[in-house]
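SAMPLE LOG
Freezer: B-3
Tube label: C17
Construct: single chain, 204 aa
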Amino acid sequence: VPVAMHRALSAEDTARGDYYALLARLFHAAPDAALLASIAAADDLPADGDAALGRAWRDLKDASSAMDADAAAEEYERLFVGVGKSPVSIYSGFYTGAPSIDHPRVRIQKDLAALGLARSERISQPEDHFAGVLEMMRVLVAGGAGRSPSSIAEQRRFFDAHLAPGVGKFLAALGRAPLANYYRTVGAFGAAFMALESESFLLD
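STRUCTURE (predicted):
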C-alpha cells in the first residue's frame, strides 16, 4: 500500500496558514460570536516578530472583544453586498481592470486545474472572490484538500499571479470606506500580513 509522506510544518508556516485561513473566513462571511470571542482571547504575537503585524493583531483582538456579531453581520452586508453596487468590491478582477478574455477568475481556474483542484460546487462565489484566493493560499502553505504543502516557489507563483495584483488596493479601499468599522481593523491586519508575505517571498 503506498504511503504518502507529508513534511511537518514549521511554526512559521503553521502561523502563515492560520492567518490566511482567518482572513479567508472573515472575507467569506461576517464573524459569528464564537469567532469574535476566539480572536479576542487569542495571545498577542511574539514580541520579537514583525512589529506592524503585532500592532495590527492587537487592534483586531481589541476590536473583536468590543464587536457584536449582529453588528458585524450588518457591516459585512453593507460593505460587500449592499443594494446595487457594493461600496467595497471583494473581487480581485475589480482592482486589476481585467478584460473578460483574460479575467483573473479564468486564470485562477486554470491554475487550480493544474494543481488538481477546483472550486467546490457548494460555493456560489466566482474564483476571484478574495476569500477563495486566500483559502487557496492556505492550502498551498499548510496543505489540505488532499494535498501536501507546496514549495515556496509554487506559493510565490500563486501569490504573485492572484493576490499581489489586487489585494493591496482592496485592503486600502476597505481602510478608506466610511462604512468600515470592524472591517477596517481586519483590513489593516490583512495589509500588514500581505506586506510581510511580499517581503518574505522576495527574500526566498
